[in-house]
Design a protein that fits this description.
Strand order of the largest sheet: 5-6-7-3-8-9
Structural class: alpha/beta
Number of strands: 17
CATH architecture of one domain: 3-Layer(aba) Sandwich
Shape: globular
CATH class of one domain: Alpha Beta
CATH superfamily of one domain: P-loop containing nucleotide triphosphate hydrolases
Distance between the termini: 52 Å
Strand content: 15-25%
Number of helices: 14
Length: about 475
């Protein structure tokens, strides 16, 4: 079949979540065979919804979606569903196919090599780290060898080695691929074009070129449109001023004044609706629990994973106020397991001072109750339950209006992340434990989050695979789990 053949065509597609939540409004775009396309847009704009429409999980309310005949589609989801956590590796991959696959074990071995993961087929899914689960999600789509590969935030939880493997795979991949990601360096390595979903107009803008070229093109276009609008605004004001002047003269001059007003109205219509930049969250601080002094956390030993088995290591780390610790090491070494044990107070060889309030940001958001409304989730962590204070903090994280009454489980992954940060602000912890806090978050928010963490005055333990993010935060001590 022709390489330039259009295999996905959205024709004036509209889609809503409920009556009050329009996501797409008369969206039109095309994707050609063999192209690698990035989907960009703000958290909650509806990027994952576009994937749902392509796979047929969602149906458009208006317009048509044409997918090329007999084309297979596979999606690498953002998270492994809780229902699949008890499966073995073998069952997990068998579950990717409608019919039983008899030669599946060699295929699993081959695909795990692609994502740089070693795992026996009888190992249970929930025993893997977040980074390893991210690799399994990728592998579950790749093993299907689809004509159209959909990747939703595929670099989340991946260490540098994992991202390098994935990048090479995508550069060499001969079929069509659509990727949702906030990782600009990663995207620029393989992208042929960008679909930008505007959260304000609910439309998609289509661009050709690599990621950085497209971002520059958008910037230049916006500057040009802003200049044109400024010039029109000046002319409009001049016409209005003249209209007022002539109107006061009376007689024939009123006719001139009317023409001037009409001219001003015509110019108003010429104004371009400039694409508004994605809203960023407001600068914030995470307040520290009052009256805490002395040693907050003492770590004399910890457990790491070597050859799939826990191994004890000795150390000597004491965290007091304003001390920030970074845990490092490759995927699967036990960073998240250690953080979870620290947060729950069950980590052997670790003491947290009595009365210390722990604020825990978990990469899979399982610390959030998905059945709670956003309102109740935020309210539940406050000592003084003052509605006005809660709503003010929430608004800073772009959580307003209808979002307050939605169940946490119905939010996009990025919005769950913003709820988790809002909870930390309202909770006022003495110890902050953060596991991959950049996952799913719009790149525009990251410098603001980094600044808040940098200025946090309590004790902090951080895990992050994003060097540019970590660089912006004061780190006093590093504990490399693999050394």
């Amino acid at each position: 079949m022709a390489k330039d053949e259009t295999i996905i065509n959205f024709d004036a597609v509209s889609f809503n979540f409920g009556i009050k939540k329009p996501i797409l409004n008369e969206v039109s775009f095309t994707v050609r065979r063999g192209s690698k396309i990035t989907i960009m847009g703000q958290n909650g704009a509806g990027k994952s919804t576009i994937f749902g429409l392509i796979t047929g999980v969602h149906k458009p309310e208006e317009g048509k979606i044409h997918i090329g005949q007999n084309l297979s589609i596979a999606i690498a989801r953002q998270v492994i569903p809780r229902t699949e956590m008890e499966m073995t590796v073998l069952e997990f991959f068998q579950n990717c196919f409608k019919e039983k696959v008899y030669d599946i074990e060699p295929r699993i071995e081959k695909v795990l090599e692609v994502v740089n993961l070693k795992a026996p087929t009888d190992r249970i899914i929930k025993s893997f780290s977040g980074g390893q689960q991210a690799r399994l999600l990728l592998a579950s789509a790749i093993i299907q060898n689809p004509d159209i590969l959909l990747l939703d935030e595929p670099t989340n939880n991946l260490d540098k080695e994992g991202i390098d493997h994935l990048t090479k795979f995508l550069i060499d991949y001969k079929k069509t691929c659509l990727v949702i990601s906030h990782d600009s360096e990663f995207l620029n390595a393989f992208t042929h074009g960008v679909l930008y979903l505007d959260v304000f107009t609910k439309k998609v803008e289509q661009y050709v070129g690599n990621y950085f070229d497209v971002v520059e093109e958008i910037k230049v276009r916006m500057e040009k449109e802003n200049r044109k609008n400024a010039q029109l605004a000046k002319e409009i004001q001049e016409n209005k001023d003249k209209a007022n002047f002539f109107a006061n003269k009376g007689g024939q001059m009123r006719l001139v004044a009317r023409r001037m007003r009409e001219k001003a109205e015509e110019l108003e219509e010429e104004k371009v609706d400039v694409r508004r930049e994605d809203k960023t969250i407001r600068p914030f601080i995470i307040p520290t629990q009052p009256d805490i002094n002395g040693d907050i956390v003492t770590i004399t030993s910890f457990s790491m994973i070597k050859g799939h088995k826990p191994v004890a290591r000795k150390t000597n780390i004491v965290l007091r106020k304003k001390k920030h610790l970074l845990l490092t090491g490759p995927n699967g070494i036990g960073k998240s397991t250690l953080l979870e044990a620290l947060a729950s107070g069950t980590a052997k060889g670790t003491t947290i001072a009595p009365g210390i309030k722990v604020g825990y940001y978990r990469q899979d958001f399982s610390i959030l109750n998905f059945e709670d409304t956003v309102h109740d989730s935020l309210f539940s962590v406050m000592d003084e339950k003052i509605e006005e204070n809660m709503r003010s903090v929430a608004a800073g994280f772009l959580i307003t209006g209808e979002l307050m009454n939605i169940k946490v489980g119905s939010l996009s992954e990025g919005q769950k992340g913003l709820v988790a940060f809002a909870r930390l602000v309202l909770q006022k912890p003495g110890l902050l434990i953060l596991d991959e806090p950049t996952n799913h978050i719009n790149f525009r928010h990251l410098p603001i989050i980094a600044k808040a963490l940098d200025s946090y005055e309590g004790a902090m333990i951080l895990v992050s695979h994003v060097p540019d993010f970590v660089k912006q935060i004061r780190i006093d001590e590093i504990l490399p789990l693999d050394k």
